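Here comes a specimen:
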Amino acid sequence: MARELYCWRCDKVLPMLDDDEWARMGPVLSEAWSRIKRHCRQHRVGPHEAMKVAAQDAFDFYERLTGYRETSFEAIWHHQASRYGPPCARCGKPLRTPQATLCAACGHPRAPAMA
């Protein structure tokens, strides 16, 4: 089930997909990207214009999974919880990656792993 996490790129707390949800969302995004490229070629428009038409299925599916209406096609690509690390021991924001050793928000070093 999607859980709310801070997104570094969006600079706000949003629903992030778990790996099972991402396995369902990924093909929807890939198909939408194919439609966007096709729409660009056929109508001689840029990708942002094409996304308004060709990415609606992806926006709808993300909303069904999370209850949140995302308006940026690019943003959905990084709303996967497992791409982020654990919460910072000081500020609580997730580390930017599972491998991060320092919190980018407050500079606090990552807490040592429990043995």
Q: What stands out?
A: The chain has a mean pLDDT of 92.
